[in-house]
Description:
Low-confidence stretches: none
Order of helices and strands: EHEEHEHEHEHHEEEHHEE
Radius of gyration: 19 Å
Distance between the termini: 41 Å
Shape: globular
Number of strands: 11
CATH superfamily: Ribokinase
Mean pLDDT: 91
Strand order of the largest sheet: 3-2-1-4-5-6
Structural class: alpha/beta
CATH architecture: 3-Layer(aba) Sandwich
Amino acid sequence: xxxxxxxxxxxxxxxxxxxxxxxxxxxxxxxxxxxxxxxxxxxxxxxxxxxxxxxxxxxxxxxxxxxxxxxxxxxxxxxxxxxxxxxxxxxxxxxxxxxxxxxxxxxxxxxxxxxxxxxxxxxxxxxxxxxxxxxxxxxxxxxxxxxxxxxxxxxxxxxxxxxxxxxxxxxxxxxxxxxxxxxxxxxxxxxxxxxxxxxxxxxxxxxxxxxxxxxxxxxxxxxxxxxxxxxxxxxxxxxxxxxxxxxxxxxxxxxxxxxxxxxxxxxxxxxxxxxxxxxxxxxxx
Length: 285
């Protein structure tokens, strides 16, 4: 008689993570990049979509906002059903949506629920240079959402705007990071890839220490979604029980691999279009 093979459910061992962010039609950034990253790290991803962006790497054509009420409904519905182990935010687009996300999370805390780790990627400007965030949103970030953060991950442009400091090298990157860590009193990961030096160096300001994470800078790749991928990988690590520093180190390695093993196609116009390679098999072989 043939032996029956029992199939063991992996659900109890699979961490659940939530991304609250915009949808990118080219799937290189936003919730699409987050979901691919979550899959690569073996965690189950949920989404609350804040806006829909018609874009390709290097060009944003149109942004359509999702209502704040719909964003709230998405988040609350997911909390009612899933054991969410960690959360990240990406493009929240408007002050109303930032305030809504903060309201849902503070409301849960006030009702006795433990808030999972929250990583905030304060997306303000697209890689192509287009402004993505309404001006009133920064105030809502600072007053409502940043105080809840386990980590904030601004790039150079975002850090310059939040700190009021010009960032042109590693020294000014550190100065800006120290100001933000003191101002917001939460861990800050300041991403230095836009300095475009020989290495892409990021600085983590945490527990009164500065930790450096560095990887070779890959030149000539015009893509987007590295910040989304980075923060999603950090959230995945935190959901799986890694310390903050280990989660950042693992995420840095992953995002560097997605860039180095990028995908490339020829457009109808004869130019090249690039995308990050999120495949969980990209680092093998």
